[in-house]
Please model this.
Amino acid sequence: MLIPYHREILSEALKGKIGTNALKIIAKANAKQDGLRGQIGHDEYHFDNNAFNESYAYIAENHVQVHNALKKGFMKKAWSAFGRLSHTAQDFYAHSNYIPLWLAKFDKKNTPTPPDVIHDDESIFQNPKLSSGKLYYPLELFSYIPPLKKHVMPHLPKDSHAWMNIDSPAQGKIFEYTFTAAVKATQDEWNKILEKLSSEEKKLFLSF
Ligand SMILES: [Zn+2]
Model:
């Protein structure tokens, strides 16, 4: 997903729930995952290349880091860990075919609107067709360059990130479902964190 949308998803999911400075640090750590170092060899940051187990493990690992940091009073580290795990949770909907599979459950006339998207439909998680886009380097890189895109796309397989991604509104209305599902998933991860905190840790983490 493109960085401005990660940022919008975070503000929508967390507005009124956390101090402004904390949100800034979360957003920065979230965006850093899409830097060059986070792009190469880190499928688990982005649910790329069908790295589902690795991505779920990465989210869990960062949950532990949030808690460990707060125990020591390191709020900045805790916010950064949440930023990282929120990035991964959001990319699930942009890089996998979860949303297309979910939409395929409905006939055209009864398609729910984006706000009604179910982001945690167990039948989709269990669907053997659930997959995420593969990165075919170096061809994939050229698909990011607008004048080259149309020449490169026919050479990329349909299971590539280039064909499968729902990274921005350029993909059409489907992006609204991706966006809303990502907001809901971010709120879930947020609630999972808060559940485990003592009232003292919560006060540090929310930092109003
Ligand atoms: Zn990403």
Notes: The pocket of zinc ion is lined by residues 33-34, 45-46, 87, 91 (CB under 6 Å). The mean pLDDT is 95. Residues 3-206 form one domain. Residues 174-195 form the longest helix (22 residues).
